[in-house]
Amino acid sequence: MTTTSTSPAPVSLYGFLTPKPGHADELRKLLMDLVELTRGHEGSLQYHLHEQEDGRFFLYEVWRSQEDLDRHNATPLLRTIMNALPEHLEGTPEAYFGAMRSSYPGRRDLT
């Protein structure tokens, strides 16, 4: 018997944010405030913040579905933080979005 998964494919967001000179600490705090909060949201499979040697921040998120990501994006705290980011950013964030095509570890239904 062959079964077909009806589960949606996970989606991922990833990108780089460059702080304005003198704003790295403020930007780091804003982004760190998101980490544990976001990890607790329904459908959040991974949420990681990295700091590069060149001073840029790299965010990597994986969501169970687009619906889960949309629900996260609609939260008041995220909107507040997103509105505060431009004050601390040098230029526009370099951001990427896509559906995950490789299997997700431990979740056969997400392949």
Automatic annotation (TrEMBL):
SUPFAM superfamilies assigned: Dimeric alpha+beta barrel
InterPro entries xref list: ABM_dom, AI-2_Isomerase_LsrG, Dimeric_a/b-barrel
PROSITE patterns named in the record: ABM
Annotated Gene3D superfamilies: 3.30.70.100
ABM domain span: 11-97
Pfam families: ABM (PF03992)
Protein's name in the database: ABM domain-containing protein
Source organism of this protein record: Nonomuraea recticatena
